[in-house]
Amino acid sequence: MSANEQQTSRTHDSAFLKACRREPVPHTPVWFMRQAGRSLPEYLKAREGTAMLESCMRPDLVTEITLQPVRRHKVDAAIYFSDIVVPLKAIGVDLDIKPGVGPVVADPIRTSADLDRLRPLDPDDVKYVTEAIGMLVQELGSTPLIGFAGAPFTLASYLVEGGPSRSHERTKALMYGDPELWADLLDRLADITSAFLKVQIAAGASAVQLFDSWVGALAPDDYRRYVMPASAKVFEAVAGLGVPRIHFGVGTGELLNLMGEAGADVVGVDWRVPLDEAARRVGPGKALQGNLDPAVLFAPREAVEAKAREVLKAARSAEGHVFNLGHGVLPSTDPDALTRLVEFVHSETGA
Ligand SMILES: Cc1c2[nH]c(c1CCC(=O)O)Cc1[nH]c(c(CCC(=O)O)c1C)Cc1[nH]c(c(CCC(=O)O)c1C)Cc1[nH]c(c(C)c1CCC(=O)O)C2
């Protein structure tokens, strides 16, 4: 059996994969975006003295950090510890992740000559990913590992702006001003992203999530014209590999149907749209993931439980539901509040 087949059979009956397939579940599965990270003291300790990108290339550290939230919170899935810019770094783009800032690109991509720097990704460029996932799935046993990548639009935003951006003005200037160059850029990113996801699936990831974190900056018509073809290409590339495909972005209430249509099996929803309304927008044949506001975790326990109960109630309209936050865990979150939330969702839904 290949690593992928072996892992698919081990994790097949997990609550997480059942929910993704819209099958009946023993309890609602839970995991948290950014569950590994600064909310955990053991993460801060493990990362001491190692830069973010460097730690992503060390299989021992990746394995330890990925397992930390599974051990502590008893979540139903692990997410591979990495970052969306890792495949870009792997093909030689000069970039770094600045603490408290995010990814910063030394020479932003703005002309057709700049595109030459985006060569295809070869699996050998990311041997450390294959190695880390091989170690991880042994440790995880029947707990599924979620692989992930950044979607073409969100990666393009970092590459074109040169760093994080609130309004994405240079990205939009390129998109509207030179649609051909834009399409070429997104197509190259789609191929890099597809190759990166395939490496993770071949090594044993049981599901994949495509993060289009910043695509909520676009109106639906522009999403359809300028972004959807590239994201659809990624989903198509990993269709038929036997792993559910999750698609998530922030502020994407008006895009939920299109993000499903792009080829997702599970649509991630932020906290701005209740899941019953999200189910109506997404339509039949998809599961939903979400969507407790991460800031709710700073409220007293009773308030967290009341809000979580609202999420679970609204989720009854969905054909399948994976409980998550509406975006990543905030770094100053009390980790005990997360552990209690996992217990609460499990106990409310039958575990
Ligand atoms: C937009 C985006 C990025 N990276 C990612 C996204 C998409 C998800 C989202 O919308 O949040 C994806 C990502 N980045 C990281 C993960 C780890 C897996 C997990 O969810 O537990 C995942 C899934 C680790 C990380 N990626 C980063 C950290 C913090 C680095 C540190 O600990 O110093 C972690 C744990 C750095 C990073 N990298 C990025 C940002 C915005 C930041 C935060 C900057 C900061 O506040 O310091 C880009």
TrEMBL record:
Keyword annotations for this protein, in alphabetical order, are: Cytoplasm, Decarboxylase, Lyase, Porphyrin biosynthesis
Primary gene name = hemE
**Which PANTHER family does the entry link to?**
METHYLTETRAHYDROFOLATE:HOMOCYSTEINE METHYLTRANSFERASE RELATED, UROPORPHYRINOGEN DECARBOXYLASE
Question: Per the record's keyword annotation, is Lyase included, yes or no?
Answer: yes
Q: Could you tell me what reaction this enzyme catalyses?
A: uroporphyrinogen III + 4 H(+) = coproporphyrinogen III + 4 CO2
Q: What's the name of the protein?
A: Uroporphyrinogen decarboxylase
Site residues, Transition state stabilizer: D83
Q: Which GO terms describe its molecular function?
A: uroporphyrinogen decarboxylase activity
What metabolic or biological pathway is this protein involved in? Porphyrin-containing compound metabolism; protoporphyrin-IX biosynthesis; coproporphyrinogen-III from 5-aminolevulinate: step 4/4
Q: Where is the Uroporphyrinogen decarboxylase (URO-D) domain?
A: 29-38, 146-162
For this record, the Gene Ontology CC terms, alphabetical, are: cytosol
- Predominant location category: cytoplasm
Gene Ontology BP term (one):
protoporphyrinogen IX biosynthetic process
Tell me how this protein assembles: Homodimer.
**HAMAP family reported for this sequence:** URO_D
Q: Return the InterPro entries for the record.
A: UROD/MetE-like_sf, Uroporphyrinogen_deCO2ase_HemE, Uroporphyrinogen_deCOase
Question: Which Gene3D superfamilies does this entry report, sorted A to Z?
Answer: 3.20.20.210
Q: Which residues bind substrate?
A: R34, Q35, A36, G37, R38, D83, Y158, S213, H327
What role is this protein assigned?
Answer: Catalyzes the decarboxylation of four acetate groups of uroporphyrinogen-III to yield coproporphyrinogen-III.
Question: DNA-binding: is it a keyword of this entry?
Answer: no
Family of this protein: Belongs to the uroporphyrinogen decarboxylase family.
Q: Name one Pfam family in it.
A: URO-D
Q: Which domain of life is it from?
A: Bacteria
Q: Its Enzyme Commission number? A: 4.1.1.37
